[in-house]
Design brief:
single chain; alpha/beta; Quinone Oxidoreductase, Chain A, domain 1; Rossmann fold; 2 domains; seven-stranded mixed beta sheet; six-stranded parallel beta sheet; 11 helices; 17 strands; globular; binds zinc ion
């Protein structure tokens, strides 16, 4: 009997060891309706399919959309995170992407698209009817290991560190694409609402690199950072000073009042590009839209080609990442800081 107990103890120890060997840390929504997250240490490491890579994650930027998902009524039951940077540790021998074990790649929001639907064929792959989004439809990058499509990951540019690279995967490409959607020409004025946030620092730098004049709009106490980056600045409570003065406006602040006020800030024939996701629905005076010939449009991330263009600016040193770093084990506090609006620029957690 004693021998059986010893044998059982040894066996169960082996099982636990194997389980720990194949396990990883992931974040889970605590399910307490307060959007808290907890770290679970015992999820199994995913097994990649033939067209997938297995990545050992190095770091991940934390985006307001992650918070929006976690704090929603129906949060995903897996990790969020769509600015993940990882090292390839497994790749199919049949893979044709040219990537190899040891390469450092990023996994953006645009996890995959089909390549065959009308949107993919017309060059709007982020609108693909079969698209999958990282951290929403499939597990995101806030976990020790993840799988990703070799066709849709992005190789790290040589001149960027892992932490500098991470925020380009969402914040960088999203602002670059939104600025392209403004259809401005060099010398025109682009208002950036929420310019001091995670996306704003990229928007200011891209606007300048593209030849536009960035007008940073945010709370007074945050504007010093925007000025240092070279933007003209306007405090939220001084909006009267820039009425009808911007050729285009991009809205990065998750604020409904920013949406409601936007049509008074652009010039006639101006464009307003919506990027942030405030709660609620915005109202606008349609007669102003018609008589001032305004264009209101939404913009979500960018295509793989947009990503290449956006990273080329970074690799040439024209756009930089302004980041704070923290650790994955502290991710619940990172989300809390984001909730409290206490983060300037972007925060990246290291694994
Ligand atoms: Zn994002
Ligand atoms: Zn498609």
């Amino acid at each position: 009997m004693f021998k059986i107990i010893i044998l059982f103890a040894i066996l169960s120890r082996i099982v636990v060891s194997i389980k720990l060997y194949r396990s990883m840390r992931v974040i889970k929504n605590a399910g307490d309706l307060y959007g808290n997250v907890i770290i679970n240490q015992y999820d199994e490491i995913p097994i990649p399919k033939e067209d997938e890579l297995l990545l050992k994650m190095k770091c991940c930027g934390v985006c307001h959309t992650d918070l929006h998902l976690i704090d929603s009524i129906t949060p995903p039951n897996h990790s969020v995170g769509h600015e993940g940077v990882g090292e390839i540790i497994q790749i199919s021998a049949k893979d044709k992407s040219g990537l190899k074990v040891g390469d450092i790649v990023g996994v953006p929001w645009h996890y995959s698209s089909c390549g065959n639907c009308e949107y993919c064929i017309k060059g709007y792959e982020p609108l693909c009817i079969n698209r999958l989004s990282t951290g929403l439809d499939v597990p995101g990058a806030l976990q020790d290991f993840m799988v990703a499509k070799s066709t849709h990951v992005v190789k790290k540019p040589d001149k960027l560190t892992n932490e500098e690279f991470a925020p380009f995967l969402c914040a960088g490409v999203t602002t670059y694409k939104a600025l392209k959607e403004c259809e401005l020409i060099a010398g025109q004025r682009c208002g950036i609402v929420g310019a001091a946030g995670g996306l704003g620092s990229y928007a200011i730098q891209y606007a300048q690199a593209m030849g536009f004049i960035p007008i940073a709009i945010d709370l007074q106490h945050k504007l010093g950072f925007c000025k240092k980056l070279g933007a003209e600045t306007v405090a939220i409570n001084d909006l009267n000073t820039i009425r009808n003065s911007c050729h285009a406006l991009i809205i990065l602040a998750p604020s409904l009042s920013a949406y409601n006020e936007s049509i008074d800030l652009v010039k006639r024939n101006g464009k307003i590009v919506f990027v942030s996701l405030p709660n609620g629905k915005f109202e606008c005076d349609q007669s102003k839209v018609i008589f001032n010939h305004l264009t209101l449009k939404g913009s979500i991330v960018g295509t793989r080609e947009d990503m290449k263009e956006a990273l080329e600016f970074a690799n040439r040193g024209l756009v930089k990442s302004y980041i704070e770093t923290d650790t994955f084990d502290n991710v619940a506090n990172v989300f809390q800081k984001l909730r409290n609006n206490e983060i300037m620029g972007r925060i990246v957690v290291n694994f």
